[in-house]
Amino acid sequence: MVQVRVAGIALDPAGQHVILLKPIDELPGEGQILPIWIGAQEATSILVAVEGAETPRPFAHDLMRSMLASLDAIVQRIEITRITEGTYYAEIVLNAGGGTHRIDARPSDAIALASRVGAELWVADEVILQAGIVDEVTDDEEVAHGAVDPEVVDPVVAEERVDEFKRFLENVDPDDFRG
């Protein structure tokens, strides 16, 4: 298993949301990145949690967090365990009632929950080998090394990176990641 982080969420040319997962020990623009296509509602829920935004009413994943807290259950980690016929599978690993439980989940829902409770994200090595791609889209070394404040990145450089990522999304085909 490889521990990952959410590197970003984007739209592909067809308007589908893609969550990008990156191993935490790899620098932006190096190694691999794992794209997973997700629904619009899940993308919104993940972004709300990652950005710490307030919503007027709780999302389903906020409800999950509240229910788990009420039951004294703790989400240990999220594991993306496999790909079967182009579908990703995940498990929520939690402690409750004196034991460890594994709950089948869609990766998007599991990641949205993890983003709310601060749980670690893990991906099976086989999934990275099967569906990971070379990371040419998150090149941001200066920010990663703390040399530049991410709030004051040169707008020309930022625009070039966005354009590069758009080119990547225009050329990527979801079928490339099917098992």
Automatic annotation (TrEMBL):
Membrane spanning segments where?
Answer: none
Give start and end of each BFN domain. 1-135
One Pfam family here: BFN_dom
| InterPro entries documented for this protein | BFN_sf, Bi_nuclease_dom
The protein depicted here goes by the name: Bifunctional nuclease family protein
